[in-house]
C-alpha cells in the first residue's frame, strides 16, 4: 500500500479504533493493572572495594583512640585564651608531611 506524502492519513475504521483503544499490545485489556517484573540487578565488587569494605568494618568496631581528656583540656585552653600556637613545630611537621607525600609518588 502506498500513500502520497501530501495526502491526508488513511481513515481508521470505527471498529479498529475501538479495539485499539481498549486492548494493549499484549492483547490484555487496558483497564487491568500490569504486573511489574522482578529486578535482577547484581553488584560485583573488585578486590580493592572488598578490602575497603573490610577496613570500614574494622574501623567502625575498633576504639577511636581519641584521648578525650586531652581534647577537653585543649578546648578549655582555647576558650580561655591560654592556648599557645607553636608555629615552628607546625611548619616543621607540615614540611615533613610534604616530603612523605612526594616520596609516595
UniProtKB/TrEMBL annotation:
Keywords, sorted A to Z: Bacterial flagellum biogenesis, Cell projection, Cilium, Flagellum, Repressor, Transcription, Transcription regulation
Every Anti-sigma-28 factor FlgM C-terminal domain range: 41-95
InterPro entries, sorted: Anti-sigma-28_factor_FlgM_sf, FlgM, FlgM_C
Annotated region described as Disordered, given as residue ranges: 1-33
Iron-sulfur among keywords: no
Function: Responsible for the coupling of flagellin expression to flagellar assembly by preventing expression of the flagellin genes when a component of the middle class of proteins is defective. It negatively regulates flagellar genes by inhibiting the activity of FliA by directly binding to FliA.
Recorded family membership: Belongs to the FlgM family.
Protein name stated in the entry: Negative regulator of flagellin synthesis
Annotated source species: Luteimonas flava
Amino acid at each position: 500500500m502506498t500513500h502520497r506524502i501530501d495526502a491526508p492519513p488513511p481513515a481508521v475504521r470505527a471498529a479498529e479504533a475501538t479495539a485499539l483503544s481498549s486492548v494493549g499490545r499484549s492483547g490484555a485489556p487496558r483497564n487491568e493493572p500490569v504486573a511489574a517484573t522482578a529486578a535482577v540487578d547484581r553488584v560485583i565488587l573488585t578486590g580493592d572495594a572488598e578490602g575497603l569494605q573490610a577496613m570500614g568494618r574494622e574501623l567502625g568496631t575498633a576504639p577511636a583512640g581519641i584521648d578525650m581528656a586531652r581534647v577537653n583540656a585543649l578546648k578549655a585552653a582555647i576558650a580561655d585564651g591560654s592556648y599557645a600556637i607553636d608555629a615552628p613545630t607546625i611548619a616543621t611537621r607540615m614540611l615533613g608531611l610534604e616530603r612523605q607525600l612526594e616520596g609516595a609518588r
